[in-house]
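Progress note, sequence design subtask.
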């Protein structure tokens, strides 16, 4: 059976057709940043205090505030109560007599709150009063995005391996667009939270599917570059979202509607993005794979032999004749755990993704020290990831995936542990280490996507990527709760997160190196990846295709080979 690397080199490993699809996929997938980071703005809060009459506006210092809001002195500074007010009646105006009455009695904010709208015109917090006793609702809405990531990545990863990459690409993009627009008109808080769940599920699954499509339409030597560029586009879109939020003055409904309508512009991509020939080949749909490859060849000005898949088709038909009632195999994530090396690689990769997300949200806990302008802080957090992506690109190309991942994870973890200095007077040092850690985690995520796509075989690649992404979402959901450890020791949360990253970096050294190695296509390929047997299959195609039973490795391949190669089902296996 021909391997994808042999076929793609005939039509061009990165010709004009693939370049066009690559650019479009990067733009569409990059917009996932709008939804992944959106709740940072949507649920943003600001200074607030109790409202005492209708149409009251926020004023930092005023006689009315002095009269109605309790305060205390902390370190020489005035601290105003945000959740209670004095039980005074100011409907007839303010006077010393009115303000001095009932000063010892306070009420909860029964009339609502007034908010400082210097930076945000309208957020979910303002609109639904998610403060004081309702503050947990704000945190809940933020947790629904990674929860949606978790469910969507696993579900659509499986569906993509069953039905193909292109249908899932179209479905997730259309659903992301529809859900974003609908959520901008959410009539109440529950509908907003439901919308955030689906905006976590669809755009993230769209990003993962687009990434897999890119990896499956290009040649080996372009994987590192393309895998890095898509993450750079994500970071640029991350920064763009800060600009959109600023121009909308933090009005969450306007922002949500804008990022939903943007996807309308991408509907024509449906006519350009094709099913990946690698997936079609693994499904033995040779005629369909040939049609796609002919499109590549036509645009790339190359020639595809008419008999490119004749031997493969004949071998497949013969296998169906020899083996009675062979049913087409449908692969699931469970297949990743049925052989020892593939199982080990999957578990290590999942832990690495968990640590990436765990550390990322840990760093986010320190970004509030960067300045008073929330839009500038938000944009800077996206910008600092771009240098990390470029460095990761160079290291992956020249050193490899394994050592690059390990180095960035270890350095990022150590930098995070150093981000809280012993003295408050050197807060700049804390910011410096926090940004070093953010740079490293941006690089780690870039490497993790490329690395995972190169370790999981084609038949379960999207499912494997989805399972890894599920593990990452567990990290992002768990991270906020680790903050509670600060009651034991202030720096303990960052120490736990930093050590997790260091351990993940060391575990990464147990994974096989995939630099300049062709993508594994079958479960057998995934099991032998990194072994001498796999290298032998790469260097000698003819010998690989005509391999005899006696030369197969002696470990558990009978089940794997029968599942991946129906033509081998009638051949006795060792």
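Output:
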């Amino acid at each position: 059976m021909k391997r994808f690397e042999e076929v793609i080199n005939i039509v061009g490993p990165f010709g004009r057709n693939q370049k066009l699809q690559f650019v479009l996929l990067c733009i569409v997938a990059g917009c996932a940043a709008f939804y992944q980071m959106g709740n940072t703005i949507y649920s943003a809060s600001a200074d607030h205090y109790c409202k005492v009459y209708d149409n009251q506006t926020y004023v930092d210092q005023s006689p009315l505030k002095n009269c109605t809001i309790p305060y205390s002195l902390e370190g020489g500074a005035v601290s105003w109560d945000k959740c209670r007010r004095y039980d005074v009646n100011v409907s007839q105006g303010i006077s010393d007599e009115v303000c001095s009455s009932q000063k010892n009695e306070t009420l909860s904010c029964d009339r609502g709150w007034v908010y400082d709208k210097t930076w945000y015109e309208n957020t979910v917090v303002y609109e639904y009063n998610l403060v004081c006793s309702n503050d947990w609702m704000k945190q809940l809405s933020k947790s629904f995005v990674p929860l949606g990531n978790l469910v969507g990545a696993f579900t659509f990863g499986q569906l993509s391996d069953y039905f193909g990459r292109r249908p899932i690409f179209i479905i997730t993009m259309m659903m992301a667009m529809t859900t974003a627009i609908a959520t901008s008109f959410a009539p109440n808080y529950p509908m907003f939270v439901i919308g955030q769940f689906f905006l976590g599920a669809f755009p993230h699954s769209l990003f993962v599917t687009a990434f897999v499509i890119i990896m499956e339409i290009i040649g080996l030597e372009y994987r590192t570059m393309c895998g890095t560029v898509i993450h750079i586009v994500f970071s640029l879109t991350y920064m763009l979202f800060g600009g959109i939020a600023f121009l909308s003055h933090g009005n969450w409904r306007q922002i949500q509607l804008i990022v939903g309508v943007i996807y309308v512009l991408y509907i024509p991509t449906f006519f350009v993005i094709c099913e990946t020939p690698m997936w079609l080949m693994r499904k033995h749909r040779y005629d369909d794979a040939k049609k796609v490859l002919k499109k590549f060849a036509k645009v790339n000005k190359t020639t595809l032999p008419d008999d490119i898949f004749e031997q493969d088709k004949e071998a497949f038909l013969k296998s169906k004749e020899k083996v009675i009632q062979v049913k087409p195999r449908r692969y699931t994530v469970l297949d990743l755990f049925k052989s020892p090396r593939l199982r080990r690689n999957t578990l290590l990769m999942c832990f690495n993704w968990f640590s990436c997300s765990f550390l990322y949200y840990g760093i986010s806990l320190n970004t509030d020290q960067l300045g008073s302008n929330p839009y500038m802080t938000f944009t800077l957090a996206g910008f600092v990831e771009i240098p990390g992506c470029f460095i990761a690109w160079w290291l992956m190309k020249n050193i490899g995936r394994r050592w690059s991942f390990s180095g960035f994870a270890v350095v990022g973890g150590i930098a995070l542990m150093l981000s809280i200095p012993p003295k408050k007077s050197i807060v700049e040092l804390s910011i410096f280490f926090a940004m070093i850690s953010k740079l490293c985690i941006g690089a780690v995520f870039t490497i993790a996507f490329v690395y995972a796509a190169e370790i999981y075989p084609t038949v379960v690649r999207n499912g494997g990527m989805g399972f890894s992404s599920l593990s990452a979402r567990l990290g992002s959901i768990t991270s906020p709760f680790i903050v509670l450890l600060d009651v034991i020791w202030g720096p303990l949360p960052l120490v736990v997160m930093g050590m997790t990253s260091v351990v993940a970096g060391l575990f990464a050294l147990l994974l096989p190196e995939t630099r300049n190695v062709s993508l594994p296509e079958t479960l057998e390929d995934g099991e032998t990846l990194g072994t001498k047997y796999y290298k032998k299959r790469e260097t000698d195609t003819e010998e690989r295709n005509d391999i005899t039973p006696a030369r197969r490795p002696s470990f558990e391949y009978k089940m794997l080979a029968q599942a991946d190669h129906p033509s081998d089902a009638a051949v006795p296996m060792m």
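The beta strands are 48-50, 71-74, 77-80, 84-86, 106-108, 113-115. Work on this subtask will continue into the next period as scheduled.
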